[in-house]
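User: Could you walk me through two proteins back to back? I'd like the raw sequence and the structure tokens for each, with a short line separating them so I can tell where one ends and the next begins.

Assistant: Of course. Protein one, sequence then structure:
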Amino acid sequence: MADLGFVGLDDDHDDPVVITGRKATRNHRLTDPEKEANRLLNRERAAVEHGFANLKSWRFPTKIRMNARHATTLLRALLVLANTEIHR
């Protein structure tokens, strides 16, 4: 899922790699279903963005010296714990 800066990367409708919202233009106003789709997409993206902001504030990920696969597993676990703590 990406923001509106990546529109155009989702041109393959059969198997999209990147999912973006819809952009309004002067000649094309967004319909209510398009606005709702943008809202749902932004809601999902916001949770991920908040998680990354929280991780960056910890500053320890810059000091991780391990296999990338293990670091990814560790960061995913920390995101789950951080989101669990935030939503308490």
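----
Protein two, same layout:
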Amino acid sequence: MQSPARKHYARVAAAQAAGTANPGRPQNGQQYEVHAAALWEARRTLKGIKSTEQKIAKKRELLPEFDAYVAGVLEAGNGAQDDVLMTVMIWRLDIGDIEGALAIGEYAMRHSLDAPDRFERDTPSILVEQLAEEAMRQLEAPHDDTDEGRQAAANAAAELTMYLSRVEALTSDADMHDPIRAKLHKALGYAYRARGGHVADAIEHLKRALELNDRAGVKKDIEKLERELKQQNAGQGTAQNSGAPA
């Protein structure tokens, strides 16, 4: 556990090194080497864990060690290739820290940074696929069937909609496999549905998911939502007619 003083030093030193590194070239500097070594040790620890659930718990425990370094790079970096930074982005997605991952993702997309070779996917594909999958996990998680529980779920869905929309805009020009982008639109569709009052938006995204991948598994939900929208529109028409002057 780093002390506040060590965290401050790591952030300042990382910012200085990141600001002077050559864009597109490998990151360097003492703080990068220190954190690259820490990352190597962390990966070795994770390799000894078989359970995915326990791996995620261990990543959640390990990640704060890199927070100050990441903050320094994001504050002053000019786009040097940084395997520590990119690994932290992916691990943050693994533990469900969408906001933290997106902070790095936006920097990575702005500077066209690559993920380390071991991940075997490009940065936009990783961001889209893992964020969509994490959003689906959160949307499918059980919640209290009370007014407070339903409102909390709707608020969480609204937040997920914001994050997913940011990723959609961030990666709109990126070339990726259609089924991956379909996952993003599917997650957006279900997030809009969970918010309530956004049936048309939900249908639009689910239809786009189906266009991109006919095995997206959304056909029945589209049909159900279209019936709901039709009833909703019919109800609004009846209400308007009943209020018209004689």
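Residues 124 and 175 are 8 Å apart (CA to CA).

Let me know if you want the two compared in more detail.
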